[in-house]
Amino acid sequence: INVDAHLSSDGHWSTGLVLRRSDGSAVGSATRVHNGVADVATGEAMGLNDAMDWVEKLGENKVIFELDSQIIVKAVKEKAMIRRRWVCVIRRCKLFLEVNPEANINWVPRAANKAAH
């Protein structure tokens, strides 16, 4: 699932989600809007959280989350303590991956994540 966040001109963060099969064909897409998100990393973390909520509702657990935010992917994969305002969202994402061992998260270059833009 490709995940990306975008700051709108009105100050809202929009999250784009594209669920694809392993052959690249699209299964579905979704968008979410968030108010009061202060920075890019928080927007990206909220996007990942949205994606995890969505795949849970779909009953999917064999999923690879692809984000172009290195800081978020690194924060989810590391065992170190995080001291950022988005720590609660990252904790939830780590828990999702623990409960769903067939799920994974990868960083992809922005050019490779165009599906979610």
TrEMBL record:
InterPro entries given in the database record: RNase_H-like_dom_plant (IPR044730), RNase_H-like_EbsB-rel (IPR052929), RNaseH-like_sf (IPR012337), RNaseH_domain (IPR002156), RNaseH_sf (IPR036397)
GO molecular function: nucleic acid binding; RNA-DNA hybrid ribonuclease activity
Domain RNase H type-1, chain residue ranges per copy: 2-117
Superkingdom of the source species: Eukaryota
Pfam families, sorted: RVT_3
Protein name listed in UniProt: RNase H type-1 domain-containing protein
Species annotation: Trifolium pratense
